C-alpha cells in the first residue's frame, strides 16, 4: 500500500507539472498474479535485494522473484507455533541492511535472513524480557544511513542493537509527556540525517532524534477535519518530507522549514 501511494503521488505530480521538449514516454507493464506463480495476490511490500532478486511480501507467504519465476520461501516456525502459524505467513515488511541481512516482518514476529551464509534467526516478543521485540505484529522495517534497523509494530517502535543482539523499545509512557504519543505505529521513515519520522494510528507525527534522545511533535493538519491516519512518510531528493494520510490529503515540509 505504501509503495502504491508513492507511485500515485508521483503520477499526479507529472500530470500537473508542465513538461516541454520531451517525447512521449510509453510505459509497458506486465502483471504478475497467483496465476503466474505468485503465492498470493494480496501484496503488502516489495523490494530488491543487493543481489538483484525481487522479494514480495504477501498475506499468504513470501516470494523471491529472479526475473523468470517465483520461489516460495518458507520461514522457520516461531516459538508459539500453533498460535502464530497464520501470522507467520502474513508477511508485512521487508528491508536489507548493509551486512547483507534481509529483515522480514510478519504478524508472528521478526525474521532475519543472512544472504551470505543462508541462515535464519527468529525474534519474538517475550513478556518476561524487556529487550525482546515489543510486539509481534509488525507494520514496517527501515534501515537508516547508519545501518541501524528500526521496526514499527502495533505496540511500540524498536531499535535493533546489533552489538548486543537485542531491541531497545521506544514506547508511550502515560507518566511522561515527552514520550511517544501512541504505541500503534503506522509508518516510519529515516531521513538523510538519520532522524526517524514516526506516524501513528491516531494521526500524530513525531520526529525522533536518537542521538539527542528527543521526540519532537509536528502538526501537519490545519484543522480537526483533516486529522487522519498517517499512511506513509517519505523524504525526497531535496530533503523535503512528505506525509501521506488516509483521508486528510498529502502534506509537505520543505527542507529547512519547521512547518508543513
List the helices and strands and how they pair.
Blueprint: H1 2-16, E1 43-48, E2 54-58, E3 61-65, E4 70-73, H2 81-89, E5 91-96, E6 101-106, E7 109-114, E8 119-123, E9 138-143, E10 149-153, E11 156-161, E12 166-170, E13 185-190, E14 196-200, E15 205-209, E16 214-218, E17 230-235, E18 241-245, E19 250-253
Task: Give an account of the 3D structure.
The structure is a single chain. Helices cover 9% and strands 39% of the residues. With 260 residues, the chain is mainly beta. It has a single domain (34-253), classed as 7 Propeller (Methylamine Dehydrogenase, Chain H). A four-stranded antiparallel β-sheet has the order 1-2-3-4, with no helix packed on it. A four-stranded antiparallel β-sheet has the order 5-6-7-8. The protein has a four-stranded antiparallel β-sheet with strand order 9-10-11-12, with no helix packed on it. β5 (91-96) and β6 form a beta hairpin. The longest helix has 15 residues, at 2-16. The two termini are 23 Å apart. Residues 3-17 have low confidence and may be disordered.
Amino acid at each position: 500500500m505504501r509503495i502504491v501511494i508513492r507511485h500515485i503521488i508521483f503520477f499526479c505530480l507529472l500530470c500537473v507539472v508542465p513538461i516541454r521538449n520531451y517525447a512521449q514516454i510509453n510505459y509497458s507493464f506486465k502483471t504478475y498474479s497467483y496465476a503466474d506463480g505468485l503465492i498470493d495476490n494480496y501484496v503488502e511490500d516489495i523490494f530488491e535485494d543487493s543481489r538483484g532478486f525481487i522479494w514480495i511480501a504477501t498475506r499468504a507467504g513470501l516470494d523471491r522473484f529472479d526475473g523468470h519465476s517465483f520461489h516460495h520461501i518458507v520461514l522457520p516456525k516461531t516459538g508459539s507455533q500453533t498460535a502464530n502459524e497464520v501470522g507467520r505467513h502474513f508477511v508485512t515488511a521487508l528491508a536489507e541492511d548493509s551486512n547483507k541481512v534481509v529483515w522480514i516482518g510478519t504478524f508472528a514476529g521478526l525474521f532475519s535472513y543472512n544472504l551470505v551464509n543462508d541462515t535464519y534467526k527468529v525474534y519474538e516478543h517475550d513478556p518476561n524480557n524487556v529487550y525482546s521485540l515489543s510486539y509481534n505484529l509488525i507494520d514496517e522495517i527501515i534501515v537508516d544511513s547508519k545501518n541501524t534497523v528500526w521496526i514499527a509494530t502495533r505496540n511500540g517502535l524498536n531499535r535493533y542493537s546489533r552489538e548486543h543482539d537485542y531491541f531497545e523499545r521506544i514506547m508511550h509512557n502515560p507518566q511522561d509527556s515527552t514520550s511517544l504519543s501512541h504505541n500503534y505505529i503506522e509508518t516510519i521513515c529515516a531521513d538523510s540525517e538519520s532522524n526517524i519520522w514516526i506516524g501513528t494510528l491516531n494521526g500524530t507525527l513525531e520526529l525522533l532524534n536518537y542521538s539527542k534522545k528527543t521526540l519532537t511533535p509536528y502538526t501537519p493538519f490545519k484543522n480537526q477535519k483533516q486529522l487522519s491516519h498517517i499512511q506513509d512518510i517519505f523524504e525526497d531528493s531535496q530533503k523535503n518530507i512528505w506525509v501521506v494520510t488516509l483521508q486528510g490529503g498529502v502534506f509537505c515540509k520543505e527542507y529547512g522549514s519547521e512547518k508543513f
